């Protein structure tokens, strides 16, 4: 198994700073309702919270407003606390994203009216989920996700009969899922994914959760749970199901009677399993918007598999992910699926053509057919109605792009990857129209033209990554200018650029100018760069 990770480092810190600034902006705390209604928390609950604080390590001092001083008396005003506006009892403890550590003290049991407990995105140092949490009997919302917890899920959580939301994802929990969770009949959201859990019997317990709408079990070893499909398909309110990387095999579908199944399902994610067919029943799910089967064992012609989706799902389907399989042949006539917004077919063995009908998918936002063996000449017609397209990846095929020199595409792309497509010999003029682009890769594209100087002097303002390497672009680079606020990554290597080195008006975090014909003194530019390769 692999792939689960703690998402702490960068994004986490940004959030931390955001939360912190938000608190400062609010005068140091997120107000509870206490002051507005002149209610004050009971002394016993304040003491319980102070006791809880004692167990917690709080390197950033988020809890410094929690204290025994007179002016801090009303715990309803403390950050992270919310009291009932009727009774003044503590009902909510929201300390997610606080970089707290230490241990979760049983003093929480002295907050009997607690309905909402969020300790997510902290670092509890591989400690276990305390069993006493199962006795916080009024809890409706429990979030301990991404908190570096380990060990088993305590079966006592099955006692939280009012629970509607349970998120224990992205920690290092292991062992079997306790079947007592099946008693949580009001649960609407259950996320146990991205741990190291197993199911040692079957999923019968799950069939009692008739309210469940969101069920995420990715990275749970379900290889022995042969009933998984029967069980999840009969959950009447299920909207999102994620059983990616759960060791599921095809054999589980073969005798499946789907006549009354999946009545509300919108998203079915079965990535990274061992499935070798698009499950036939998925074509008959009239609510299905997203189907994720990347990283399975689908083989044979893509067109034949697509026929399995021609039931009523063809009208609702928005995202089809079949990357990392062994599909071959041509792209089908996707016009059958008028709602498609995303097509992901990267890393298959597609060796046919790309029909022009793809240009009629006027809702299409993302098209990725990279790393296949497609052979075709792509023209304006392939994009005729794609005015919403945001990302396009045709890299790593045998595709030739031939457009009228003055073609103005109907789209404004965010990301464009055309590595190893044939674009040249002229620099593709239409790329100049893409003023919103952040990532642009036209490397190894048989371009042998002079540097598009006025384009370099006024690059798209949001550009963060530009790769034009391995072409035969020649001439002198002008000083490079963009309004970008981010640091740029440039790869201009393996061309025939010459003359003195250009100046860059922006911070460049990596610059590869190697295998060109520049002259000059490179050290002048190095100060703002993290990586530079000139030869
Ligand atoms: C708030 O309640 C206290 C007693 O609990 C009382 O002395 C005070 O006057 C109240 N303040 C307001 C604004 O109602
Ligand atoms: C008290 O809280 C409830 C639910 O949180 C809310 O519906 C109600 O409007 C609040 N009442 C007052 C007076 O703020
Ligand atoms: C989780 O806890 C373990 C054990 O203390 C520690 O080694 C590890 O660095 C922690 N992981 C994160 C992401 O904080
Ligand atoms: C993490 O746990 C280990 C042993 O389980 C302990 O030695 C260490 O002090 C703990 N670290 C923190 C920050 O609590
Ligand atoms: C769970 O609930 C049952 C009754 O509903 C009770 O007897 C038992 O003590 C509870 N267990 C815990 C750990 O709270
Ligand atoms: C998860 O916890 C186990 C011990 O329970 C430990 O051996 C393993 O290294 C941990 N894995 C991660 C990714 O922290
Ligand atoms: C659910 O709770 C009841 C009693 O409250 C108990 O008898 C039953 O075994 C529990 N079911 C599961 C699946 O834990
Ligand atoms: C997952 O748990 C198994 C035992 O249940 C253990 O052997 C394995 O190392 C764990 N994997 C990780 C990544 O913690
Ligand atoms: C999944 O569980 C089964 C049965 O418990 C076990 O044989 C298998 O090795 C597990 N697979 C992985 C990848 O851990
Ligand atoms: C599937 O189930 C429905 C009713 O639930 C039944 O009428 C039908 O005969 C079953 N089909 C098969 C092939 O078992
Ligand atoms: C595509 O690949 C399949 C399977 O390898 C092969 O049978 C077929 O002839 C290939 N088609 C083309 C046009 O190369
Ligand atoms: C560029 O993107 C922004 C959103 O990121 C959008 O509002 C704007 O319309 C786009 N510009 C063009 C020319 O499409």
Automatic annotation (TrEMBL):
Matching SMART domains: LRR_TYP
Name of the protein: Receptor-like protein eix2
Record keywords, A-Z: Cell membrane, Glycoprotein, Leucine-rich repeat, Membrane, Receptor, Repeat, Signal, Transmembrane, Transmembrane helix
GN (gene name): EIX2_181
Entry membrane topology: Single-pass type I membrane protein
One Pfam family this sequence matches: LRR_14
Leucine-rich repeat-containing N-terminal plant-type domain location: 44-84
Signal sequence extent: 1-27
Domain Disease resistance R13L4/SHOC-2-like LRR: from-to ranges: 89-344
Annotated InterPro entries: Leu-rich_rpt (IPR001611), Leu-rich_rpt_typical-subtyp (IPR003591), LRR_dom_sf (IPR032675), LRR_N_plant-typ (IPR013210), LRR_R13L4/SHOC2-like (IPR055414), RLP23-like (IPR046956)
Family statement: Belongs to the RLP family.
Protein's cellular compartments: Cell membrane
GO CC aspect terms: plasma membrane
């Amino acid at each position: 198994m692999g792939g689960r990770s703690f998402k702490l480092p960068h994004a986490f810190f940004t959030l931390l700073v955001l939360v912190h600034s938000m608190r400062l902006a609010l005068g140091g705390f997120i107000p509870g309702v206490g002051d507005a209604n002149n209610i004050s928390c009971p002394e016993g609950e304040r003491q319980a919270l102070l006791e809880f604080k004692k167990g917690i390590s709080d390197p950033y001092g988020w809890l410094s407003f929690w204290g025994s001083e007179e002016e801090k008396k009303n715990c309803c005003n403390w950050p992270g606390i919310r009291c009932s506006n009727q009774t003044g009892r503590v009902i909510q403890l929201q300390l997610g994203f606080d970089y707290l550590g230490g241990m979760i003290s049983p003093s929480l049991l002295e907050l009997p009216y607690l309905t909402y407990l969020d300790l997510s995105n902290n670092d509890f140092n591989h400690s276990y989920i305390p069993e006493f949490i199962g006795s916080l009997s009024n809890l409706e919302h429990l979030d301990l996700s991404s908190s570096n917890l380990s060990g088993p899920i305590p079966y006592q959580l099955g006692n939280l009969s009012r629970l509607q939301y349970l998120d224990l994802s992205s920690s290092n929990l292991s062992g079997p899922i306790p079947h007592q969770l099946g008693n949580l009949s009001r649960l609407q959201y259950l996320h146990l994914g991205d741990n190291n859990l197993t199911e040692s019997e079957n999923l019968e317990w799950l069939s009692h959760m008739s309210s469940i709408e969101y069920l995420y079990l990715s990275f749970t070893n379900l290889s022995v749970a042969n009933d998984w499909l029967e069980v999840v398909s009969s959950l009447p309110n299920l909207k999102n199901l994620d059983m990616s990387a759960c060791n599921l095999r095809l054999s589980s579908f073969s005798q499946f009677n789907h006549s009354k199944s999946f009545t509300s399902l919108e998203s079915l994610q079965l990535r990274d399993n061992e499935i070798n067919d698009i499950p036939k029943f998925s074509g008959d799910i009239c609510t299905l918007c997203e189907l994720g089967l990347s990283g399975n064992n689908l083989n044979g012609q893509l067109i034949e598999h697509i026929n399995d989706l021609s039931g009523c799902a063809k009208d609702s389907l928005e995202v089809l992910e079949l990357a990392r399989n062994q599909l071959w042949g041509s792209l089908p006539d996707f016009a059958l699926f008028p709602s498609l917004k995303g097509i992901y077919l990267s890393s298959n063995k597609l060796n046919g053509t790309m029909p022009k009908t793809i240009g009629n998918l006027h809702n299409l936002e993302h098209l990725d057919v990279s790393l296949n063996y497609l052979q075709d000449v792509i023209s304006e017609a392939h994009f005729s109605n794609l005015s919403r397209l945001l990302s396009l990846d045709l890299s790593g095929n045998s595709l030739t792009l031939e457009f009228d020199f003055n073609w103005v595409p109907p789209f404004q792309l965010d990301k464009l990857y055309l590595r190893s497509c044939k674009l040249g010999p002229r620099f593709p003029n239409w790329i100049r129209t893409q003023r919103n682009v952040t990532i642009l890769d036209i490397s190894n594209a048989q371009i042998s033209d002079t540097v598009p100087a006025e384009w370099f002097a006024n690059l798209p303002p949001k550009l963060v990554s530009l790769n034009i390497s391995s072409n035969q672009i020649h001439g002198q680079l002008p000083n490079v200018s963009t309004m970008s606020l981010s640091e740029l990554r440039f790869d201009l290597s393996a061309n025939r650029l010459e003359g003195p080195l250009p100046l860059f008006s922006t911070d460049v975090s990596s610059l590869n100018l190697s295998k060109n014909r520049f002259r000059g003194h490179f050290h002048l530019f190095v100060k703002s760069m993290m990586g530079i390769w000139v030869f």
